[in-house]
């Protein structure tokens, strides 16, 4: 076959592209309005398709929400090999470059505390997993003598998550809030040799 002849795009490729477009549109709508207020019609209108067409790919609004959450979790991640403190700071920088994703996270996380919300279990699992992961990392630092005396890893891990999310919420409301600097200050309180470099600063 002549390699210079462009190949026709098959139905699978077109279907995958349409699904991505729908998920991208849903991410924007849910970030702006929340899951409860953001309608399927809002999403369909954003990409110029009928609601019937949208339902062909995602029969339920809940299915679309789960696809949006999966996409959010699959976006940019810090490079491998960073120390735990540097990874925390690098993730904050990455979040700041994708304003819609922190906005989506904050809106849906807040909504998820209501009874029966379809994202409630997702966020409950996420927080439990992060607490375990961060506590394990801090225990490892304690074994290296890098965690300050008297600091309980599990409590410090819960505090780190709370401070990160709280700073991120403040940043969404006021771009002058520096999430990375706030996290660095917290790490300096609990670690003997916390990162001091100013090379990683939340973009504004």
UniProtKB/TrEMBL annotation:
Source organism superkingdom: Bacteria
DNA-binding region: 39-58
A Pfam family: TetR_C_6
One Gene Ontology MF term: DNA-binding transcription factor activity
Keywords: DNA-binding, Repressor, Transcription, Transcription regulation
PROSITE patterns: HTH_TETR_2 (PS50977)
HTH tetR-type domain sequence ranges: 16-76
Designated name of the protein: TetR family transcriptional regulator
Organism field: Microbacterium barkeri
